[in-house]
Amino acid sequence: MRTSRHVPASAGVALVLALALAACGRAEGGGSATLPDPVGSWTVESLTTGGRTLHAPDTARLAIGPDQVKGNYGCNGFSAAVAFSGTSAVTVTPGATSLMACADMEFETAFAKLFRGRLTIDRGPDRLTLKTADGSTIAMTSTPAESDAPLTTTHWTVEALVSAGTVASLPAEAAGKAQFTIAADSAVSGSLGCNRFSAKATVEGSSVVFGPLTSTRMACEGPVGEVERTLTGLFGSGPLTAKVEGRTLTLTASDGKGLVAKAASAAE
């Protein structure tokens, strides 16, 4: 005959609660496929630090993944590794960043200083606030993921040159002057910053090869002329690797030299 053992009601409730909590712990800390709430695309609204509020430029964004972040401080792009503690905190380890001279360096510097180390997470329906140990905050709102601009048929404006792993913005005298478009039929037209040019491109996957450039023959001196000579050499250097992320295009040669360009907005 089986014997039954009486378990007090209070002990039974405690046991059920313990099992439920253990199950929740396994779901959050184990191999669950559910991503933490902060994973997604966010537009930075403002920073609060040192008793001040700094409003973000429109281009300050974060694309947060399960273990990596790609973002823009407002001008310079960056990446970082992240490790989540459930959905209540995240530890940020900064990675690579571009080094362009930017108009609002105060915001860029403050953002880079705050977005590192252990940050607590405050979530809302469409909002995310990251808080540092000293109470400084990064306030964000959710934003739809930005689709990549097409390599062809997009009007690209060169913003920076790449050399030896360093991204340097164009001199003020040359800013906004170097532009190009690769048409649907692979015809290329644009400006090297001083002279207008045309060429034919061969696009295969992420590889772009520019044919011989035909250009006007104005004499171009100073920083504008230097940029023009650099771009002429880059376009004629052989296969370039194209990478488009959102509205940003990077063209890189085999020796590591390259350019960074931005797609024109609909208003432009």
Summary of the model, kept short:
With 268 residues, this protein is α+β, with helices and mostly antiparallel strands.
Break the fold down into its secondary structure elements and pairings:
Blueprint: H1 9-29, E1 40-49, E2 52-55, E3 61-64, E4 68-72, E5 77-85, E6 89-97, H2 105-114, E7 117-123, E8 127-131, E9 137-142, E10 155-163, E11 166-169, E12 178-182, E13 187-192, E14 196-204, E15 207-210, E16 214-215, H3 222-235, E17 240-245, E18 248-252, E19 258-263
Antiparallel strand pairs: 1-2, 1-3, 1-9, 3-4, 4-5, 5-6, 6-7, 7-8, 8-9, 10-11, 10-12, 10-19, 12-13, 13-14, 14-15, 14-16, 15-17, 17-18, 18-19
The SSE order reads HEEEEEEHEEEEEEEEEEHEEE
The third-level CATH topology of the largest domain is Lipocalin
Proportion in helices: 10-25%
CATH architecture of the largest domain: Beta Barrel
User: How many strand segments?
Assistant: 19
As a percent range, the share of strand residues is 35-45%
Total of DSSP H or I helical runs spanning 4+ residues? 3
Radius of gyration: 25 Å
Helix/strand class = alpha+beta
For this structure, what is the CATH class of the largest domain? Mainly Beta
Our count of domains comes out at 2
On the 0 to 100 scale, the average pLDDT is 84
The rounded distance between the terminal residues' Cα atoms is 87 Å
Tell me the strand order in the biggest sheet. 1-3-4-5-6-7-8-9
Stretches where pLDDT is under 50 for at least 5 consecutive residues are 1-35
Tell me, what's the shape? elongated
